[in-house]
Amino acid sequence: MSSLLVISRHPPAAPAAREALDLALAAAAFGVPVGMLFLDAGVLQLLKGQEAALIKQKSLTANLQALSMFDVEDLFVCQHSLSERGLTPNQLLLPAKPVEGSEIASLLEHYDQVVTL
Amino acid sequence: MLHILRHTPQDTSRFASSLRVMGPKQGLLLIEDGVYALLPRTTALSALQLLPASVRLYALETDVIARGLAMDDVPKRVTLVDYPTFVQLCTQYDKVLSW
Amino acid sequence: MKFAIALLAGPQDPAARSALNFAQAVLDGGHQINRLFFYRDAVHLASNLAVYPQDESDVANDWRDFITANKLDAVVCIAAALRRGVLNEAEAYRWERPGANSGKPWELSGLGQWVDAMQTADRAVTFGT
């Protein structure tokens, strides 16, 4: 059964952001086909050049980069959420595919289960 | 697919996001603070009313009453449900997405 | 139908009560719950140290009664629990902490248990997102 994780709320400094990524890695470790969609404030997790250590936070970058090692390669980012924040796809540290509202609707239909974190 | 929204539409972008990706024939169930989308004369309620008629709208009745929303203000197209019906909806739609 | 139910919000959030009402309705409707999974702040429900004034409802206690009465599999994410100071005897001993505040019916285990529950359920429903 394939699962789509929608990472929607937590900017990278929130500990919950890491707990969301942990679920993706756990699912991948169990061989579950998993996709990830970064939406709303969740897109901020993908911003390049984060120095989380300066505020005593563990960097998410390593976890994000581990995704490809676990074969989590279906990464999507909401174009609307990027635009709202004045961001463009080339500012992201992962090659996530920008998707619009109707494409997101079909993504949600495509996966067997969808979990928002 | 059944979308479940539990956050106040006025405070978070989840309400707007859920509407943006809502497909035809899907359902939206308002629970907890999500029922504040039913407050009259709000942009949230107008946005709900603008959804295609094929999108079914539901709200958890206890959460509506608990928060002091007037039942008379609940639009006709919104079906008020209890927990057993909430469970039934989850079985009727092929999957559930909590916002 | 088999339901996997996850709760992400803590005892102070209305979601803790919604999820319990939903779980009860699932069983009353003749369906099964293959696992309950408690993640993020929901792990606080597994602490047996919270004290509520008499006129407030103790949602953690209600969960405990529900899980015990229906012999359900209630898994608490171990990493999230340790981080928030929710420890059973084994973990308190392992990490040399002065006491344990969790135990039966809760089981501390990994996120894989949630993944596994979603794989074997007909419906996965998350509360407290």
Provide the fold topology:
The complex is a heterotrimer of chains A (117), B (99) and C (129).
Chain A: E1 3-7, H1 15-29, E2 34-38, H2 61-69, E3 74-78, H3 79-84, E4 97-99, H4 101-110, E5 113-116
Parallel strand pairs in A: 1-2, 1-5, 2-3, 3-4
Chain B: E1 2-5, H1 14-20, E2 27-30, H2 43-49, E3 56-60, H3 61-66, E4 78-81, H4 83-92, E5 96-98
Parallel strand pairs in B: 1-2, 1-5, 2-3, 3-4
Chain C: E1 2-7, H1 14-28, E2 32-38, H2 59-69, E3 74-77, H3 78-83, H4 89-94, E4 106-109, H5 112-120, E5 123-127
Parallel strand pairs in C: 1-2, 1-5, 2-3, 3-4
Helix pairs in contact in C: 1-2
- At the fold tier of CATH, the topology name of chain A is Hypothetical Protein Ychn, Chain: A
> In CATH terms, what is the fold-level topology of chain C?
Hypothetical Protein Ychn, Chain: A
The CATH first-level class of chain C comes to Alpha Beta
Nearest-angstrom radius of gyration of chain C? 14 Å
CATH architecture classification of chain A: 3-Layer(aba) Sandwich
Assign the structural class of chain A, choosing from mainly alpha, mainly beta, alpha/beta, alpha+beta, or little secondary structure: alpha/beta
Name the chain pair whose interface involves the most residues.
B-C, 18 and 21 residues
Uncertain segments of chain A are: none
Uncertain residue ranges of chain C: none
